User: Fold this.
Amino acid sequence: MAFGLATVCVSQDLSQKISSRKVKKEFRKADVNPCDSFVSQAELNAYMGNTLTKVVKYDVSKDSLLDIDEFAPIVKIKKTRKNIKQLYPEYIHFVPATTMQEAIIFAKENFGTTLKLEGNLVAANFINQLLTNLNNKMQGTSILPREVVIKKSLYSRDLLAGAAGWENMTKSIYLGPYFVDEFKEAQKAGKSYDEVIQSYIKKSRNPRYSRFYTESLRRYAEYKVKAIYHEMGHANHHAYCKNAGNMGRLDELKKDRVMNTHFTQTFLNDVANNDVVKKFFGSNTYPLTSPAEFVAEVFAYKIMGKQIPKEVDELYDKYGGMPVPD
Assistant:
């Protein structure tokens, strides 16, 4: 079992109620998984001086005691990991649409998703194919967006390097102008997105271009696929782990006035000296800024079939990443 760090806070009022048990009026720390349902009484006693025999229920996300049960035998932590349910068919067959209306109907009937892509058929087929692949990989258990919308103004904190963003409140994926440039070019030229990217790569093989430039284009083509899966990683993280909202970057948590930063602080300590994790992501340091970004990026790699090192997978599970079938 993987463990994270949570604080058991005994308030003065509650301490007085159990003063006969000699529970000290101070903060104590116990190892609990951010998404596990309980630890044993013995485990908590090891931290609390073997004095507490009553049940202490508390909300991990708020670090506060909720109530004391005089007679129950174990310490319960509010359940934070939700059950996985099948939401869609295990397999959906994708057929590229020939008209925008066909693409809109396909998304609505298969995913319950509304496409608002300014009539761009290339973008619609691209999104429908990725959502189909995601659904089939997850065997119908993945959260899928209510809407996919082109949004001309996105704040930098809402998107992945200027491309796309997930809005958990509306359950929507937003695509920035940068993301849809090639789709517009493809539509204008009567080509598919892949054909446009391959034309870039073909041009880059000209001796005037460096090998680095050619490789950059290949990564760029993969990047947009990963960007969508990354955002769906956020979606599934929020759906699967109730504490996902407390796992953002420190600057995000501060801006959103979220006081509970221990998940992120613990994560930063976890990866600070982990050479395996750093090597896996290479120059891509964005996933190392918070457990939320880490989980979303690893989820994307899993959907794309990339081999995940054991150390990376353990952290993914520790911080509430949704299981992905092999």
